[in-house]
User: Which sequence fits this backbone?
């Protein structure tokens, strides 16, 4: 049993972010438009810097007000999700740079890896980046101090709203 | 066919194959959940039901459960009356049941046919229309 305090995290905003990452990257691949992948990388980078999901404004000002997505606020740690987005940003940056340099197989593989991980999170409720965060936390690395909410598998979407 | 068009077709085809593989994997996981639910049906029911059963996993602080899933289930329940049995489980009170049924998030709904076989699982919110459509096939 740990004694950390959880925060309110809107998983619908995270999901919207993941769906945009998935959709734009697939479009980038189909139309062979590297700049779209680079755009996704930049948005994820900006989101990481501002500590919010990169495509949050679309959720906040378009999807939520129109009722197309409803808030799904759970007691959770926001830090693992930020770390996950940062990892995605690094993969997307590496992928985009590879594509600009002509390493197409490596570049698109990295882009598809981000798509696969985002899809696993959006549709399966499992955040691989969060699981990596919690795994690193076991080694007492600085900056990885949070533990998964009680009764939740590291990386899984919390189903129990315990405020530890 | 120009090389640009060919490239587009190949890329589109490859994207569809990858998405299809992902969807197949997701479907496989759901099938395993259904087998698991069928095997554990007697953790919830004392005897085989003679009507379809909707098993609804929720938690007290689950916002979409309150705003969407609960009203949808109420609507379906009102429409079908005695023809449907609804079992609601609070995963915070019965984590053992959530575990044996393989529930990873809430809301999760299972639909069992009258023989107690789990036929559908909805991970996340399932609207009333979808639930009705699924119940009609049981």
Assistant:
């Amino acid at each position: 049993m740990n004694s950390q305090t959880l925060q309110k995290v809107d998983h619908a905003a995270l999901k919207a972010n993941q769906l945009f990452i998935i959709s734009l990257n697939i479009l980038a691949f189909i139309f062979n438009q590297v700049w779209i992948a680079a755009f996704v990388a930049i948005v994820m980078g900006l989101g990481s810097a501002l500590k919010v999901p990169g495509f949050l404004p679309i959720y906040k000002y378009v999807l939520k007000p129109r009722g197309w997505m409803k808030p799904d606020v759970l007691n959770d740690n926001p830090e693992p999700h930020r770390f996950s987005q940062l990892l995605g940003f690094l993969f997307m940056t590496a992928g985009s740079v590879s594509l600009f340099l002509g390493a197409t197989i490596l570049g698109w593989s990295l882009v598809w890896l981000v798509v696969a991980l985002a899809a696993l999170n959006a549709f399966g409720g499992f955040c691989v980046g969060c699981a990596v965060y919690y795994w690193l936390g076991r080694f007492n690395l600085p900056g990885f101090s949070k533990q998964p909410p009680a009764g939740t598998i590291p990386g899984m979407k919390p189903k129990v709203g315990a405020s530890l | 066919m120009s090389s640009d068009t060919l490239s587009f077709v190949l890329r589109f085809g490859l994207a569809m194959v990858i998405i299809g593989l992902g969807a197949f994997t997701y479907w496989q996981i759901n099938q395993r959940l259904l087998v698991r639910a069928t095997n554990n049906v007697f953790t919830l029911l004392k005897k085989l039901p003679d009507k379809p059963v909707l098993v609804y996993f929720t938690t007290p602080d689950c916002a979409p459960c309150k705003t969407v899933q609960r009203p949808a289930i109420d609507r379906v329940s009102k429409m079908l009356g005695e023809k449907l049995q609804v079992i609601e489980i609070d995963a915070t009170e019965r984590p053992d049941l959530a575990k044996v049924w393989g529930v990873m998030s809430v809301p999760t709904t299972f639909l069992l046919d009258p023989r107690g076989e789990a036929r559908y699982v909805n991970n996340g919110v399932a609207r009333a229309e979808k639930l009705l459509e699924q119940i009609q096939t049981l």
